[in-house]
Amino acid sequence: MLISTLPIRIYYEDTDAGGIVYYANYLKFFERGRTEFLREYDIQQDTLLQQNIAFVVKKVEMDCIKAARFNQLIDVETEVTSYRKASLMFTQKIFNESRELLCQADTLIACVNLQKMKPNAIPTEIIEVITRAS
User: Which residues make Cβ contacts (< 8 Å) with residue 43, sequence separation at least 6?
Assistant: First the structure.
């Protein structure tokens, strides 16, 4: 499977008063990781939006294991672990500089037609990119 890694520095704005990353911000890091994954493999979301196609989060299962802290450099690893006609399953992990696992999530992404707000088959060219790595 394809894997993408995004380095992110933890800023003060990402943390609570104790300098620990606020749990909801992990979702933002995962979102950035998925966006960069698609960009890295030349899947342009702005082009899809012009075609009234979007990827939306349907379900997230997240496990916070260890705290990330202010000024740490983390890596967000993203991979597509399965797909169906109109959905992608992303598995994502956040590691600190020592490669300790801090947080992980499985996120189900639905492909939708924005005009109809109904499921849409994932474009063939995206499936081809994903299956080339399998």
Answer: 125, 126, 129
